[in-house]
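Technical annex B. To support the medicinal chemistry partners, we prepared a structural model of the target in complex with NAP, based solely on the information shown next.
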Amino acid sequence: MNQYERFEPMNPPNPSGETPPPMPLASADVTDRVWASLVAARDGAPDAQDGWSAAEKAAWSLYEPLLGSNEGSVVFAQIGQSLDGRVATVDGDAADISGSEGLKHLHRCRALADCVVVGANTAIQDDPRLTVRLVSGDDPARVVIDPRGRLGDDAAMMAGKGGRCLVVQCCDRTRPEGIETIMVPASHDGVDPAAILTALVERGFRRIMIEGGGITIGRFFDAGLIDRLHVSIAPLIIGAGPSSLTARPISLLSEARRPTSRVYGLATDIVIDCELG
Ligand SMILES: NC(=O)c1ccc[n+]([C@@H]2O[C@H](COP(=O)([O-])OP(=O)(O)OC[C@H]3O[C@@H](n4cnc5c(N)ncnc54)[C@H](OP(=O)(O)O)[C@@H]3O)[C@@H](O)[C@H]2O)c1
């Protein structure tokens, strides 16, 4: 088997509901030259993989789809979770769910994105900066979906250095100077994720990352708007707490989405890369 055969789809749509065949795990080694090539490709340079190891090529395969094509936009989500599918404790401790390589993975995803979107709960509970600190790369613009204007003006993402910060809201709420607001209509079902994406694309964003939490990712997932989902799993068990992806429930497993997926090992965490688009 050559190494590209490892990346053939292993679990195509399976309407019979049968268990798909196991997915092979590829070790991904994001060396400096792999990362430099990805950042260059983000800016339009052709890729060059001469002399790369299989693990370096696997790393490229993990991240390259996040760059999208030259035409149109790409929407990807990344969620770091425990073995039991949690993203925080019931008391809100969310800092160290991912291992060190899982955290670097998160920062790589941010560095490849034009903007990073979080929901109001995440912005309020975690107060994230949404910057790139663990790898080299530019900070993305920061976007929070805060329909009811709950997020305080002292939020770290609003105070962060440089870069654009945008708030998606339904209410008439003035934000601090320099913060862009996107007014969207509210419906009985919240805000239409398609309207949010349209507004972001209109403002020049092409690579759009949905960082969480589970409710926000679930809204985009249910609307069929996520092209790529990275589920990063760290070997810890939390017991209870917010779920990773809060999708619309189904009653039969035959109704479940079974995306084409590939599994990558990142030393401390595994990443399941799901092709949804
Ligand atoms: N491990 C990770 O990778 C990761 C990443 C991010 C977050 N987290 C954790 O996730 C937890 C929070 O996640 P969560 O699922 O509870 O909440 P969330 O997704 O962060 O925020 C949900 C809220 O955002 C607003 N919202 C988002 N999309 C909307 C839409 N389409 N229409 C209307 N409103 C929308 C709503 O605010 P209103 O209720 O104000 O209307 C909604 O209640 C935190 O504990 C955080 O630490 C973990």
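Notes passed to the chemistry partners:
The chain has one domain: 25-44+51-249+258-275.
Helices lie at 32-42, 54-63, 100-112, 120-126, 156-159, 193-202, 214-222.
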